[in-house]
């Protein structure tokens, strides 16, 4: 087993991996950019090294610097988390060259899956069902027009190197095709340095369902059940659940077996995710493979009882899978809410800043994976994911009720977060009935939230505002409310000081 | 102690006194039976009658929010005896300031000082966390002043423009 | 279903039940004594009523006051938690008389199990194996001597009304019997107002294993697996796990079926626990039944995936059990650590006071049920249980490693706690090998903890102590450490103020 | 700034200076490369070389504890230039005070003022959380003073007896 693992990441996933290391008796090495010295992953690490400026290219994306730290700290493996370098075959290869184990698939497997067109070619060979369309980049507008007519509109133009919705265009008819093709190509060029674009049939209101797989380095590959990831905004997932309410045991077995064949076709090792589009007739089509740990891996952990990061590390250390397919069972239901520093009143624009108060939920069925803490200044340089609230219950209704309860306990003061969005989603009748597709969230957000004016609660707010001001006033005096439970030590918010000044004026 | 309190735009007068461990409270003239404990800074356990509320207080970019359970209210508290707060209250009727809702970088300025803009017209573009946000004018008027420069870093609450 | 439930308890269990109520859409009514106004269960309730002085007899044990609040608040049910009135048949009967549903068994079932001798008589009738001895109170010393000789020394004298180790004496030989009998009788009289004492054969180094059962009001009774509760100090449990490492599926089934027969013999409804003593040959003997929710119920919840409090409420509302015995399966392993406000350096004497800093663990496999919060003043009037840290893992080794990690994250500043004790237990080779019996903890505590002096860590402490003092010094000045992450708001500890004064002197 | 620091009974001299966002640090004359961030009040993220430590600080009943990860150290910090701390330090050599480790109630007083006691002899019995605790003399000596009365409530740190 490894003695020391370098975590080439930050935020909640770095904390997640550090915890796994500590549970396995492995020392955890953190790296951090200039704005991340006070981050939770540094606090929780055993060793920590600065790696440069805030810009990711100077730090978390800088292969040479990270490998230099691996060497200086004598780490024998690197966990890349998700994002940053996690799906970069050059990094995987550089690790191998430097004699440090990359905890993930081989560079070759990544490359096979990294280009969507190459992946489609491989799947074609392995007889995997995928969304109809081309498996090669489009040569010309004429070819595009021909293919589109052949498979029928609407069609999707997609960047071969794509991800995160970049270089993607939905085309309803021939007259839109030319400009869409040009736009997709130039966006692909700008985003990925690769203008290759291909065509897929557009599936109307599809569901996005993905299958977790795990493969050891001895030829054993298993699937660990699916996740329902249809709730997306701007092609970014917001809430995920497992199992999918759509998938029955037979469909799960069929999708799982296809996912295992996809992984085997790519010579895949370690944890990975095979994404499928599912149409309204429950046909499923291979979409792409994510060659890393997913943000939403905890929902799979909760329903299977396994720890995927432990397993990633054990597989990377050369161990065989400790279970066979038939020993994996699914029990209960899990849902993950991605807590972002985003402003719901401002179109979910990122909202960094200092967290002045943090009340975290706990209790039965609640798991919290987080990279934040009270007093931390959320930097504005990275993805605004603060943490994840994951609920587990006997069934879907119970976990929904449980998350509603936990969301009511969750309070992140001083910055805007999307916590209120989850209350809307979880209490939506369509969501409760599991009528989900990738358009669900946009439709929900288009509807104005009917804020019923709660007069009683407004009265409570008025009284409380006055009491807060009054307590600020007599901070050093004696007053009953404060005496009943000695006052917090933490008192010098500007506002209180201000109201104190005013009251004494 | 008397406070003028605005909750989500609605004004209330609160008469609040504390003696011998008990509060007396009149909200808009109505007597309320209350009992309050500051559990920790910014967290109040408030009983009104026997109903129990966990109330949180926060400032985001200068704005005071009071949360009753999971419902958020925009709040302003003024002590009518205070000259300072009266002055501040008057602020709201002057030219309209457009402030940054979060820290970020000014990537583009879309109008010039002196220019007339419609309500909803873009004024500046701010970037944070890899996303760009166009800050719009809240009303029709003349752009009096744009105190920020392209490329400048701004903090939450900084004034980006003033529209008269 | 109920609309409003009154929780006749305080601390972590009151919070636990409030959470279940909120998850089920039921309003939660709290009651609190004079020293508990600032307690977490009041903060989290929907309605809260003061019920009197700190002394439990004036408040949490006062049946008339609690029923008066139930009436005033129009609660349609009462959850008693554990301790206080939870096993008091008079209370259950008073609830029934007042038309409020008591969430637990009937008064009659409690009475059948409340007296140990009556319970033994019932078990005798139902052919349940129990520890050899008398099923009736001893009339005289002569009778005691006769019975003791018949079953063979060592024997246990036990109070019929007993609990918590009170009125219990281990007797090795005849010459100790007289004084032990007198002592047990007078202690039983003092503790329970009932001097009835009976004899049981003393089982040497027994294991204490209990079986969770659940019965609806329609005649259905199931068992939910066992808990290993051998780790006790002064007959109080400290750490519990499920499943028991000793119990295999066949033994579980046999114990479970006996437990169901015990419950049925008593006409038992709702959740309950049947305690067994297990000897070194794995024979198990009925010991007693706990007619309430146990402190350690979460370990059963984690391995079965059920929520016992939800089920208690549903059963009390007249619902049928939502599953049959064969639908209950056990997966993984769970361990609970009871976090007490106790001083490990002072023989685990209770240590109330103000919590100045609370860092709580979270992440994979960690559940935290707690009644404390930062800034709270732990009152000295009640049981010192602050909360429970419960870990879940794929197997026993993983959950032990996970709890070690979580204990390292757990920090309760300002008061003494027993957190360090769990590090000792979980890293003990005997514990890891699952060689457990009820004497384990006393043996562990008799061994001096070999505190190896860690010079490197002491150097770190020295430097940190200086930095804390220096930062206190320049609290309002600018310094890099503080600037890197703006200083906590919470700064006016006496100590810092003092070091500031000194430095400026 | 120079501090005399006692950690678990062992004395250290710490020379600590902070300028331009960097610390210079000498522990018992050895130079240490350190980097510190106060994550929140009483929680320090400390790097020494590249090793990283989460250090917590607390006071329990007047005693300062420094926790390095999960290892607790008893600490005393004195600024040698401070007269006050010198005076306090001298305290330790006077008569021995026996203080309450936690709040509670005095249920019994076992000795009289002026009585001679052995080390380990019971002095008073304190009750808290339904348990009784006998407070013992730390040394052989004469009981100078017992400032508490039977039935009295005491707070953590209160002096229960002085043994000379």
Strand order of the largest sheet of chain B: 4-3-2-1-9-8-7-6-5
Compute the number of structural domains of chain B: 2
Percent helix of chain A:
25-40%
Question: Mean pLDDT of chain A, nearest integer?
Answer: 90
Would you write up a description of this structure?
The complex is a heterotetramer, with two copies of chain A (505 residues) and two copies of chain B (164 residues). By secondary structure, chain A is of the alpha+beta class. Chain A has three domains: 4-103, Rossmann fold (3-Layer(aba) Sandwich); 132-201, ATP-grasp fold, A domain (Dna Ligase, domain 1), CATH 3.30.1490; 207-450, D-amino Acid Aminotransferase, Chain A, domain 1 (2-Layer Sandwich). Helix content of chain A is 37%, strand content 23%. Chain A has helices at residues 11-23, 40-43, 63-73, 89-98, 107-114, 116-125, 141-151, 174-192, 249-265, 297-304, 308-316, 396-409, 419-427, 429-432, 440-446, 455-473, 480-484, 494-504; strands at 4-7, 27-33, 47-52, 77-79, 101-102, 155-159, 169-171, 197-201, 207-215, 221-233, 236-242, 270-278, 284-290, 333-340, 342-343, 349-350, 353-354, 357-359, 366-370, 377-378, 385-393, 411-413. In chain A, helix 7 (141-151) packs across helix 8 (174-192). The radius of gyration of chain A is 25 Å and the shape is globular. Chain B contains one helix and 17 strands. Chain B is mainly beta and 164 residues long. The longest helix of chain B has 9 residues, at 83-91. The two termini of chain B are 36 Å apart. Chain B has one helix spanning 83-91, and strands spanning 2-7, 10-19, 22-27, 30-32, 34-40, 43-48, 51-60, 63-68, 71-78, 96-99, 104-109, 116-117, 122-128, 131-136, 141-145, 153-154, 159-163. The model of chain B is unreliable at 83-93 (pLDDT under 50). In chain B, strand 5 (34-40) and strand 6 (43-48) form a beta hairpin. Chain B folds into two domains: 2-87, 2-Layer Sandwich (Glycoprotein, Type 4 Pilin); 94-163, RNA polymerase II/Efflux pump adaptor protein, barrel-sandwich hybrid domain (OB fold (Dihydrolipoamide Acetyltransferase, E2P)). Chain B is elongated. Helices cover 5% and strands 60% of the residues of chain B. Chains A and B meet through strand 16, helix 13, helix 16, helix 17 and helix 18 of A and strand 1, strand 2, strand 3, strand 5 and strand 6 of B.
């Amino acid at each position: 087993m490894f003695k020391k693992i370098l975590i080439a990441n930050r935020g909640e996933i770095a904390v997640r991996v550090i915890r796994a290391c500590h549970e396995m008796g492995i020392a955890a090495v953190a790296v951090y950019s200039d704005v991340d010295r006070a981050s939770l992953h540094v606090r929780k690490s055993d060793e920590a090294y600065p790696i440069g400026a805030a810009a990711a290219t100077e730090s978390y994306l800088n292969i040479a610097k990270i490998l230099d730290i691996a060497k200086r700290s004598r780490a024998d493996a690197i966990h890349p988390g998700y994002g940053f370098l996690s799906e970069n075959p050059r990094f995987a290869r550089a690790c191998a060259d430097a004699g440090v184990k990359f905890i993930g698939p081989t560079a070759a497997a990544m490359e096979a899956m990294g280009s969507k067109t190459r992946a489609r070619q491989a799947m074609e060979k392995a007889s995997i069902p995928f969304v109809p369309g081309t498996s090669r980049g489009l040569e010309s507008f004429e070819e595009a027009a021909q293919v589109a007519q052949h498979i029928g509109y609407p069609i999707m133009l997609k960047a071969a190197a794509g991800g995160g919705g970049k270089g993607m265009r939905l085309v309803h008819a021939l007259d839109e095709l030319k400009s869409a093709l040009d736009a997709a190509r130039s966006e692909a060029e700008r985003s990925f340095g690769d203008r290759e674009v291909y065509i897929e049939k557009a599936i109307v209101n599809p569901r996005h369902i993905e299958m977790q797989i795990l493969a050891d380095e001895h030829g054993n590959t298993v699937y660990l059940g699916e996740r329902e990831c249809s709730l997306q905004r701007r092609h970014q997932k917001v809430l995920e659940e497992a199992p999918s309410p759509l998938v029955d045991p037979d469909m799960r077995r069929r999708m799982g077996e296809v996912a295992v064949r996809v992984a085997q076709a790519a010579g895949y090792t370690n944890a990975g995710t095979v994404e499928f589009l599912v149409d309204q007739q429950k046909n499923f089509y291979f979409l792409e493979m994510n060659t890393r740990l997913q943000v939403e891996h905890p929902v799979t952990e909760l329903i299977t009882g396994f720890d995927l990061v432990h397993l990633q590390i054990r597989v990377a250390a050369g161990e065989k899978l400790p279970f066979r397919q038939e020993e994996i069972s699914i029990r209960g239901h899990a849902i993950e809410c991605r807590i972002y520093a985003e402003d719901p009143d401002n179109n979910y624009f990122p909202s960094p800043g200092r967290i002045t108060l943090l009340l975290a939920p706990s209790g039965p069925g609640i798991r919290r994976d987080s990279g934040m803490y009270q007093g931390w200044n959320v930097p504005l340089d990275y993805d605004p994911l603060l943490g994840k609230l994951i609920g587990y219950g006997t069934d879907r209704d119970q976990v929904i009720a449980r998350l509603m309860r936990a969301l009511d306990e969750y309070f992140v003061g001083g910055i805007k977060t999307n916590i209120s969005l989850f209350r809307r989603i979880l209490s939506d009748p369509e969501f409760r009935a599991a009528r989900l597709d990738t358009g669900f969230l946009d439709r929900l957000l288009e509807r104005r939230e009917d804020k019923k004016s709660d007069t009683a609660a407004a009265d409570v707010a008025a009284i409380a505002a006055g009491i807060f001001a009054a307590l600020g006033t007599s901070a050093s005096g004696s007053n009953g409310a404060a005496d009943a439970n000695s006052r917090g030590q933490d008192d010098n918010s500007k506002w209180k000081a201000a109201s104190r000044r005013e009251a004494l004026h | 102690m008397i406070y003028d309190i605005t909750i989500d735009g609605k004004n209330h007068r609160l008469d609040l006194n504390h003696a011998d461990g008990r509060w007396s409270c009149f909200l808009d003239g109505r007597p309320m039976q209350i009992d309050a404990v500051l559990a920790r800074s910014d967290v109040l356990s408030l009983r009104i009658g026997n109903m129990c509320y966990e109330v949180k207080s926060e400032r985001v970019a200068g704005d005071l929010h009071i949360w009753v359970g999971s419902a958020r209210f925009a709040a302003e508290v003024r002590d009518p005896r205070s000259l300072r707060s009266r002055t501040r209250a008057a602020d709201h009727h002057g030219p309209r300031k457009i402030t940054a809702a979060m820290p970020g970088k000014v990537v583009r300025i879309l109008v010039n000082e002196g220019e007339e803009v419609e309500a909803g017209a873009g004024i500046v573009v701010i970037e944070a966390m890899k996303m760009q946000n166009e800050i719009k004018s809240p009303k029709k008027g003349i752009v009096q002043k744009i105190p920020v420069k392209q490329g400048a870093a701004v903090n939450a609450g900084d004034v980006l423009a003033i529209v008269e």
